[in-house]
Amino acid sequence: MSKPQLLNELARFIERVAATARTGLAFKPDGFDAERYEQLLHEAARLQALVSGASEEEAEELRARWRSEVVAGYHGYVTAAVGVGIIAFNERDEVLMIRRPTGKWWYPTGFCDVGISPAENVVKEAREETGLIVFPERVMAIIDSFKVGSPARHVYAILFYCRIVGGTLNPNPLEALEAGFFHLDRLPEPLHGLDRKWIEIARAFHFKGRVDPYFDPV
Q1: Based on the domain organization, do 36 and 116 belong to the same domain?
Q2: Helix 56-68 and helix 3-27: axis angle, to 10°?
């Protein structure tokens, strides 16, 4: 196993331990089990600090933040975050891309807000980030961030194949430095994130008529 793979597995382990501890405290806030969950949370924060080069004080701040996020019972069950991605082509078969505040390019995305469906989130995010109105036609893929080697927060990204139905390309400066349409073979650099499988998935849906969604294998 390479060093990047090892670090990714360690990050995944730390997140799972922290999630288990927080969920355990949500359902068992006192007693013997609670003490063990508190210990797990402490150790997970300590390991995260070691991996990231943070200080003991920062480790304690992380533990305290995790602890403060514990909510009793059902609502305290810690799960992976869910986001949506917008894959939309123009009449020249170019895909919509934005340059994020980090300076890196990606398709429009956003975390799913509570109270609205994934498809409704797609419409909202596209309008907020780019000024365009899109219609989600089908789910293209559900991508697990850990499966592509991301050591960051565990996210399930739902990619939607969308049709542009209105609006004007006008990127929100809080969300995107710029936006434009690009051929899949000539995407702008640098690209955000580690995943590149979305490019071939987009190609298959737009040019080859694929309709069955991709999901990461077991």
Answers
A1: no
A2: 40
Q: Which residues contact 52 (CB under 8 A, 6 or more apart)?
A: none
Same domain (yes/no): 110, 151: yes
Residue 14 · residue 7 · CB < 8 Å: no
CA distances to 86, 87, 119, 161 from 138, rounded to whole Å, are 11, 10, 9, 5
Structure tokens, 32: 């013997």
- Total domains in the chain come to 2
Strands 81-88 and 155-167 turn out to be parallel
Q: In this predicted structure, what is the pLDDT of residue 8? A: 79
Give mean pLDDT in consecutive 10-residue pieces for the chain, a chain of 218 residues.
81 90 93 94 94 92 94 91 97 97 96 95 97 98 89 90 97 94 97 93 97 93
Chain centroid to Cα 198, Å, comes to 14
Q: What is the extent of the structural domain holding 204?
A: 81-215
pLDDT in the model for residue 166: 97
Instruction: Assess whether the previous peptide bond of 190 is cis (omega < 30° from 0).
Output: yes
CB neighbour burial string for 125-134, b if at least 16 within 10 angstroms, e if fewer: bbbebbbbeb
Domain ends where: 61, 76, 91? Answer: 76
The encoded tokens of residue 31 equal 């007693």
Locate tokens 């929100």: which residue?
172
CA 35 – CA 130 distance, rounded (Å): 48
Q: Which tokens in the block code for residue 170?
A: 């006008």
